[in-house]
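Sequence, please.
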């Protein structure tokens, strides 16, 4: 599996020649203007740091055979923009161009007990990579590669460490860090602490392809 981080939570994943783009947004990420050969675009939830309707429309013009996978909350907004999608939520799955995509989880992590939680679906890609979106709910199935949230208004770095330990992946790399001016402890802590739990950590330089 090849993974490229475009920033924050936006990943390009290639497995057996099938390319999936997860959470495309230019809020804290930079998606290349000429991105081509995308088979599927996956959106975990409706927040603007995880998807943009304008960017989605542009990507679909450039990749006219690409399909979209998301949950019902995002789906409402896509339907209003006349963008077709496949509904894949908790416990559901779909295979696109041979790539298995499985949904896990239902809600965004809590920001405050008085603040409503939006829908959030984590996605397992190709049976190997798990992207949780904005949730620290431990998935039911084993995870080989974990895209590990490390910062945000709904979490702090130590919560990410404990989430990784609970998930017990073979590999992990930090995501959800685009709002930080300096990455600092969000990179150092997982590199130092998680190998003690048998988890290999990679820090992904932006726009560089990594093999897993």
């Amino acid at each position: 599996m090849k993974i490229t981080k475009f920033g924050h939570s936006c990943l390009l994943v290639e497995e057996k020649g099938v390319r999936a783009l997860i959470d495309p947004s230019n809020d804290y990420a930079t998606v290349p203007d000429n991105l081509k050969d995308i088979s599927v675009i996956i959106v975990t939830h409706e927040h603007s740091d995880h998807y943009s309707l304008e960017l989605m429309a542009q990507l679909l013009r450039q990749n006219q055979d690409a399909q979209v996978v998301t949950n019902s909350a995002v789906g409402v907004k896509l339907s209003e923009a006349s963008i077709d999608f496949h509904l894949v939520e908790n416990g559901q799955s779909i295979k696109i161009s041979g790539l298995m995509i499985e949904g896990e989880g239902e809600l965004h992590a809590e920001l405050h007990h008085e603040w409503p939680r939006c829908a959030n679906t984590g996605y397992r890609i190709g049976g190997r990579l798990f992207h949780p979106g904005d949730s620290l709910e431990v998935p039911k199935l084993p995870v080989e590669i974990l895209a590990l949230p490390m910062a945000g208004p709904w979490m702090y770095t130590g919560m990410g460490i404990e989430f990784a330990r609970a998930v017990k992946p073979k590999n992990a790399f930090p995501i959800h860090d685009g709002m930080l001016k300096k990455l600092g402890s969000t990179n150092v802590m997982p590199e130092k602490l998680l190998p003690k739990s048998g988890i290999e950590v990679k820090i992904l330089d932006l726009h560089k392809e990594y093999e897993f």
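The chain has a mean pLDDT of 92.
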